[in-house]
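lol so apparently i was supposed to do this last week
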Amino acid sequence: MKKIVDIRNLKKSFCKGNVCVANNINLSFNEGEIFTILGTSGSGKTTFLRMLAGLEKPDEGEIFIDEQLVFSNNINLEPRDREVAIVFQNYALLPHLDVSSNILFGSNASKKELEDILEKTKLKGHETKYPHELSGGQQQRVALARAIINKPKILLLDEPLSNIDTELRNILRTELKEMIKSFNITALFITHDKEDAFFLSDRIAIMFGGDVLQVGTSKELYHNPSNLYCANFLGKFTKIGDNSYIRPENIKICENGNIKAIVKENIFYGNFNEIIAEVNGQDLLITSFDRSPNIGETINLSFEDKVLNF
Ligand SMILES: Nc1ncnc2c1ncn2[C@@H]1O[C@H](COP(=O)(O)OP(=O)(O)OP(=O)(O)O)[C@@H](O)[C@H]1O
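anyway here it is w/ adenosine-5'-triphosphate bound
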């Protein structure tokens, strides 16, 4: 697979506040991949995206885009020469321009290219509308169309789904993924939201304090986290030994289970129950899709062979 972005030994600190936002980052993304940087607020995600786009100067390191060196000790290509496009959190549409003019803003695309992108982003028939006349989904598609029309090598998405209520967010992220995949474009998505990252990404990098802690598919990260921070960030667990932990869905309630526990709490979440059960004075968190024991009931448990060890 061809590497579209290759980042080597990237370092950046802000003197003001003495904050290290990139601590020797090495990362690469493949052509056609949706790659996500997932991290809490202040972990350095936005600065990373801005360094890739050429909007923030790293202190050290090298950035290659499509095998071209765009940043090093003595090279620093302008944003417009890096062939990247950004979709911002609030879409940054120009309110006084209609859909076509927003898409064409700053672009040399032809009328035919505009027609094509309007078709592919399902905006045909909305060309003369203004941003305030569009739904959230349509606004997102205009922002995507504007980013994609110049055929960037990489599409950078800066938390486009935050500040949107859950129902609309589910619709928008489905559309977003379909659009990105249909254009077969390489995308870097940054978010603090684990669910969005799981939904959208081919691979995810977990970032904290300017460090990339782990890179992998959502399944790899969830089932084989490299440390306690990553394990905790991606899901719940109970400590069951000095260095061992177990996810709640890996504890089964079954008649022939050899661990006896007493149910302390049982919360119904619709398609599953979250149960807290006590064993020898220790609380275990259990997720069950088919059992709903009563509080005070004695249940038998068995641990699946999927223990996390750090
Ligand atoms: N221009 C700047 N000058 C000084 N410090 C900065 C600057 N930009 C960012 N920082 C600091 O760098 C750290 C990382 O910021 P960054 O915006 O990259 O994080 P983030 O993970 O994107 O956070 P959020 O999700 O809140 O946007 C923060 O502590 C922030 O205050």
